Automatic annotation (TrEMBL):
The keyword Lipid metabolism does not apply. Belongs to the thioredoxin family. Residues 1-32 have a biased composition (Polar residues). This is Thioredoxin. It holds the Pfam family TPR_20. InterPro entries: Thioredoxin, Thioredoxin-like_sf, Thioredoxin_CS, Thioredoxin_domain, TPR-like_helical_dom_sf.
Length: 330
């Protein structure tokens, strides 16, 4: 989903904004659940269409068959309730209604003697059922028993929004990414991925002091989450790099003395915070090739620290880890 059409689009949670004001416009009002349900979830059937509508359809998903008649009072009580529950089930089951006055043979074959009667079909055969105008709660329990419990759509929605936010920040759009992360935090204030993403956005927008303040105010358990710890380490690297001098001057030092490992280590740290991960890794790998004892194998330790921030799936991590292995085990 895009940032413009998802329900979590909004402003930052105030606990993470610092002095900035981020976020996009709120999403338009979402449609009700029934607006998203296909019309064919509930249909009338006939004797001729029963094979198609029930037996064949039940091979794809459970089908509830409601046997009813126009003169049946309890049938009229059950109809709006079961239709409501089926729609709320959002596709986990279908409901097929059969008027036994017009089509008595199927009910007769199934031995139905009292209506309303609801029979569940799975894989072309009846597996369970109930009779009478039962309460809504019992219908929900019946559907859960037949089709399994409903998925946690809220959790799935948050995961989708987090993916959208990460795509935005990876594309350099930290401001809109922050809007998504902030909205997730409003729904789930201790979501570690959203906290880490929000701080990542602050860093990208130059709000280093605000990012540090946000980190310092986190509960210990949340601060220890891997995603939050990684962005905290990234902030450490940025703050350290500010003290390392001019990268152009360090390049000149290396041109004069390629074995100036101290200059090369500083340059690796600077290239890392600039976002040139390949160059950062190459400088550290070069130190390792030439002098593993430098600063007690400090280049390797620094590279592992980079990996923690970049993440195991980052292409730069994968490429550098491969080269690191060849150095360590050659």
């Amino acid at each position: 989903m895009s940032g413009s059409d998802n329900p979590y689009q909004g402003s930052f949670g105030t606990q993470m904004t610092g002095s900035a004001s981020f976020g996009g416009q709120p999403a338009s009002t979402a449609s009700g659940p029934n607006d998203l349900i296909p019309d064919d979830l509930i249909r009338e059937t006939t004797t001729a269409a029963f094979t198609r509508d029930v037996l064949e359809a039940s091979r794809q998903q459970p089908v509830l068959v409601d046997f009813w008649a126009p003169w049946c009072g309890p049938c009229k009580q059950l109809t709006p309730v079961i239709e409501k529950v089926v729609r709320e089930a959002a596709g986990r089951v279908k409901l097929v209604k059969m008027n036994i006055d017009d089509h008595p043979s199927i009910a007769g074959q199934l031995g139905i003697q009292s209506i309303p009667a609801v029979i569940a079909f799975i894989d072309g055969r009846p597996v369970d059922g109930f009779m009478g105008a039962v309460p809504e709660s019992q219908i929900k329990e019946f559907i859960d028993r037949i089709a399994g419990p409903a998925a946690d759509n809220g959790k799935a929605e948050i995961e989708s929004v987090l993916a959208d936010a990460k795509a935005l920040i990876d594309a350099g759009d930290a401001q809109n990414a922050a809007g998504l992360y902030g909205a997730v935090l409003q729904a789930d204030p201790e979501n570690a991925a959203a906290v880490a993403g929000m701080i990542e956005c602050m860093i990208a927008l130059g709000q280093v002091a605000e990012a540090r303040q946000a980190l310092s105010g986190l509960p210990e358990a949340l601060a220890g989450e891997a995603a939050v710890a990684a962005v905290s380490k990234k902030l450490d690297q940025i703050e350290e790099a500010r003290k390392l001098g001019d990268p152009a001057a360090l390049e000149r030092q290396l041109a004069l003395d390629p074995d100036d490992h101290a200059a090369r280590l500083k340059l690796a740290k600077l290239r890392n915070v600039e976002g040139d991960r390949t160059a950062a890794a190459e400088h550290l790998l070069t130190i390792m090739k030439r002098d593993r004892s430098f600063e007690d194998d400090g280049a390797r330790r620094e590279l592992l620290s980079f990996f923690e921030v970049w993440g195991p799936k980052d292409p730069a991590t994968i490429a550098a880890r491969r080269k690191l292995s060849s150095i360590l085990f050659s």
